[in-house]
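Researcher: Batch entry, complex prediction.
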Amino acid sequence: MADAKNVAAERLARLEKTDWQDAGATGTFVSGFASSVRDIWGHRELLGMLTKRELKARYKDSTLGFLWSLARPLTQLFIYYVVLGQFLGAARNIPNFAIYIFAGLTVYTVFSEIVGAGTASIVANAGLVKKVYLPREVFTLSSVGSSLFNFGIQFVILLIAAAVTGSLRLGPHLLYGVAGLSLVLVYAVALGLLLGALNVFLRDVQYLVEVILMLVMWGSPIVYSWTQVQNHLPAWLVQVYLDNPVTLAVIGFQEAFWSAGTPGTAPDDLFTRMVIAGLVGLVLLFVSQRIFSKLQGNFAQEL
Amino acid sequence: MSDTTVPIVQVADVSKRFVLHKDKSVKERLVSLGRGKVHREDFWALRNIDLEIDAGSTIGLIGPNGSGKSTLLKAIGGIIQPTSGSVVRRGRMAALLELGAGFHSDLTGRENVYLNASILGLSRRQTDLYFDDIVEFSGIEEFIDTQVKFYSSGMYVRLAFAVAVHVDPDLLLVDEVLAVGDEAFQKKCLDKIASFQAEGRTIVLVTHTLNQITDLCSRALVLARGSVVFDGDPTDAVSVLRSGFKTATDAAEERIVADHVEVSSFEIARVESISVSGRDTGDQILVEADRPLEIDITVDAKTRLTDWGIGVHVDNPFGQVVVGTHSSVLPVTVPVLEGRRTVRFTLSDAHLGSGEYRVTSAVFGTGGQELHRLTDGATFTVKSPVKTYGPVGAAAKLTF
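Model: Structure tokens for the complex:
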């Protein structure tokens, strides 16, 4: 009993020195962002576990397990290669068409998975959101984690395929790949946070997102070349088309992992465009997080 | 413990408004755009709550359904953001609002322990440290590597509770989750709570089991319609709540009306009322433990019943039958029932332990078919001088 008393006294002494903190912290516009980031960082271990949970649970009872996550992109690759490439003749203008498609598809898939899963993440974790306090961004970010894992597998396949067909070479052009992935991540996380929060209040958002993601896929040069777009659109619209961050990322990936065999297809100022888009993306990410934290106070009651 | 009090939670002028939307989809919102106000309704779950909680205390929040207890608990936990006012706290907090929130049915018990501990704020290293204790506490060692979807519901909550109590919180928020599992495990849970109190942890508890309030808490708050109506001694708080239940609250009124409708439309016979003889203190009937328990039951028959029976049982607040009997097993000849009649059951030498009990009675017709049952028709409290706990009292002695 004396032990317990000491423990109690120590606890009191420690608490007396502890600073007060807001329950469910939201500071001012800028300082709130910093404290949110700190809060999320403090929960990074949980983030890892939630990601693992999602991955483990997804294919838990299936024999082939993770191989299934490859089924969809490989089938897509097959369909686009055969139907668009061979039957419709798109492959005639683009050499090494399979790698071309797969490079674009890989980077687009990670974008669409993050945005899709991010939008649904808060609603899907309603049980936890309502019952436990966590920085809610963790749920969105855990869907980023599992999407990245899938991306990793696809990416390895892309690298192997590119190496086999001879379109993978070391050089500074590989930086386009890094830039492309970063760009896609920044935008996908920003959109995932924003749409995930909105989806709590208006469930239509998640259906709308599915449709828009399909548009985005065909709106970026994955199964055709961006130069083909030039012939059909006025010049200013081509510029708009090129400044779409997903388009930039797709072109970046193609530059990095496909173009070694066939140089000279990228727009001239690709890197500048990517940097500018990246900066805009960071602003968007900041704004999304602020909107997210503004809305999250009402998550528990709306779910 | 020092005499100085250290506040751990400060709630200042907190109000919470819920807007009740009646429609969710775009279509519905567009259609009702013009008359948007009609389709939303404001509801104040909390109104201007001020509260300071001292470290080391155990506080009970009680009140009828919808009074705002859980909302207040969630506001303290940061799960709900108040509409106005501020909540600040310090130290490490764990919220037990639902056992096993975050358990994933496809993962094994072991994986869920790590996940759940992490959700409640333990690092992986700390969980490693506590893991054996957690499993031992839950008592399901052999199933720890089985997916939790194959668990029985009892095993599930036991594992969840075991994780929750091994998190090392300064402030523990508990919503209706104490006392889960079988009786032995319930005992374990309550012991754990007691050791938490001894270690100076602060507990905020929402419950409908009023016994827990008087047994565990050092202070209790009664909420009604989002405001604190009483703040102080737990025993007084329980009295306030009981009297409130009888008169003021809508919920109680509705229930009384419902009971009334149910019993007024009887066809053959009914149990009209139950009363227990004892000292009436206004808010409870006190019964001495060493006196025979006398239960008077008034039955009313519409038709003449020659072959009928009556049963009674006394329950503890967990709904477990403590003692019960029936006219068919007693050495009596049941007289013909016509109209209203009051019968008396006398239960001697029962030795009930201290606590609250409820009496349920039913009247049976030909062939033992139940005609009507009055559930919890009377409530009484036993004050026993004996030094034991549980539904049965005994003269306890310790020898060395």
